[in-house]
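Worked example 3. Consider a protein that binds alpha-D-galactopyranose.
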Amino acid sequence: MKRVFTYVAGALMLTACTTGTQKAPYELIAADAFDTTLNGRSVQLYTLVNKQGMAAQITNYGARLVSLWVPAADGSFKDVVWGYETIADYLDAGTDVYSGPVVGRYGNRINKGQFTLDGKSYQLTINDGENHLHGGSGGFWSKVWQGGVVTNADSSQSVVLTYESPDGEEGYPGNLTITVMYTLTNDNQLVLNYEATTDAPTVINPTSHSYFNLHGTTAQSTNSHILQINADSFTPTDAGLIPTGEIAPVEGTPLDFRQPTAIGERIEADFEPMKLAKGYDHNWVLNKANGQFGEAAVVYEPATGIVMTVSTDQPGMQFYSGNFMDGKDVGKRGDLHSFRTGVAFETQNFPDAPNHPEFPNPVLRPGETYTQTCVYAFSTK
Ligand code: GLA
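Given these inputs, the predicted complex is written out as structure tokens:
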């Protein structure tokens, strides 16, 4: 256990002092728990704290969100994302290496890792059955990014991280430079801004892969979270979770979250797409134009009163209910990464879009700049 310092949020310290004891609202992970060198690059842990005491810890190893302390309705703070306490634990992570990172170059799946661009065929690495997942076994999530903390004009702070992905990495064409900026605003939003350029035509679909649990502990299942998704349709898949190309209505299915519904209510439903995914692990087609920024989902946990709103300019969102977790990995504070104790909301282009001309265009060309914005906003009720 390498946590060696405690942060006391200014505003909360006053409350705590009235009791005579300075009770810290939460413990942050110390930067030295991430102090190592990987492939010649120095690993860092950055900490952002806003005026309301909300905190985000981010490491440049995989541009990963490590901790996210948000206020609950009773005034306490909960760490609502999965993660580990040391870099060694991240490197040892067994069943799920995708706790908190930015995945890519192409997040989600590409059928058999193959696609054709401008008449040329490419073969990507295969790391999920017979398919390519989350950028491959050496995807962005496994790289040490370069960056640091900047203070913005409005006094909020950002962690800015850049990775240069060489031509041919994991099979992708083009030298690609990607920057991800995490900003913690003073009104309790965690904003992710992405930007990327390339020197040859390529495909791109980075996304943030945090597992959220609004209880603040995996001792309680995320099945109790009340979820609303602003989507009338989804992209059905084959058994390998590769889209068939169909855009199907959610109406009359357990994927209809247009009205707030507990995640667990229909998770065992006898519905083929859910049997294939062993729960929820689908791409919802959001009710807005591609590129238009808007609300994708609202998640609420009655026990803590925490509300998280997910907004994006992307056309889709993968909601994954943690169906493949086995509890073998031990995360922060001894939390087991167990079956359905974490939920991911991956704002994205559609899976396998490089093989579906009818899906939104995933191609980035020299001279163009790829951008994406995703906001996780927190409040209580
Ligand atoms: C995504 C996928 C899931 C799973 C997780 C990582 O959410 O859609 O099927 O692979 O990543 O475990």
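Take a moment to read the result before moving on. Helices lie at 10-18, 87-92, 272-277. The chain has three helices and 30 strands.
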